[in-house]
Amino acid sequence: MSSTLNPALDLEIVRVLRAPRALVWKAWSDPDHLKQWWCPKPWTTEVRAFDFRTGGAFHTFMRGPDGGESDNPGVFLEVTPMSRIVTTSSLGAGWRPQESWLPMTAFITMEDEGGSTRYTARVLHRDEASRKRHEEMGFYEGWGTCMSQLEAYAAAL
Amino acid sequence: MSSTLNPALDLEIVRVLRAPRALVWKAWSDPDHLKQWWCPKPWTTEVRAFDFRTGGAFHTFMRGPDGGESDNPGVFLEVTPMSRIVTTSSLGAGWRPQESWLPMTAFITMEDEGGSTRYTARVLHRDEASRKRHEEMGFYEGWGTCMSQLEAYAAAL
Description:
Two copies of one chain form a homodimer.
Chain A: E1 10-17, H1 21-29, H2 31-37, E2 44-50, E3 57-63, E4 69-80, E5 84-88, E6 105-113, E7 116-124, H3 128-136, H4 139-155
Antiparallel strand pairs in A: 1-7, 2-3, 3-4, 4-5, 5-6, 6-7
Helix pairs in contact in A: 1-2, 1-4, 2-4
């Protein structure tokens, strides 16, 4: 399933990560790897569910040094090896509807770029207010930091 | 993607339809057929979107003889020919999150039963209140009537 960017509703970051696509995929596809780069440090990630297939649960729980917490249950809508991962917070395991504090669907795509990886994170929201709130929460800085962490982690695998 | 029934949250009807599976599938897979049996008559269905593939829009709009209306945009999560159709009202076209007056995910499965079709409609809700509301709206009667209409329509194709 491909998607089309709607600038009024969506947020996107495209970066070329200096790591081979096979290693970027590896860093994504194992929860023990994923938790190492998933959220901006010094926040930490606990992976509570990682059933890496279409309809499988994906649940991360993040903790900050000041006691802050962020609970993010969701589901995989698509897992295409080495190429595309789609997740949403609007459904839970087995595609059951659920309420989310931040309803979104994220399309992650990976393409070869020489020996590096063109990595795209496109996030779809249900309305302009949700997009605005996500941007104001620090979407670009937060997801950008995670991409840098992913790049460094994958390159060292 | 299979699902497991949770009696506290889900609603299900299983019926053997006296029509071959190929015709039941045919009655589902074309909007000109679908609109003939989709909602309990004398209500009528307008199919506003029917992009019959994973991630494709599925939008029905129903009208009653007394001026009542029911607007149901959603998306296909899975389309496996002759076997399984999954839709949700919690996402729209391209898997974009959306609010729904009735958040649900429906799993439709079709299996051979002699020359007939074992037809299962399993509907997942996000909480007990949603399930209860859906049942009180007349889930069993409404979906049951549609299944009878589907059976008669498919058998005559």
